[in-house]
Amino acid sequence: MNTPSASPSPRFAAIGMVVSDMAASLAFYRRLGLDIPTDADTAPHAEAQLPGGLRLMWDSYETARAVDPDWTPPQAGAPTGLAFACADPAAVDKVYAELTDAGYAGEKAPWDAFWGQRYAVVRDPDGHGVDLFAPLA
Question: For residue 60, what is the domain's CATH number?
Answer without folding.
Answer: 3.10.180.10
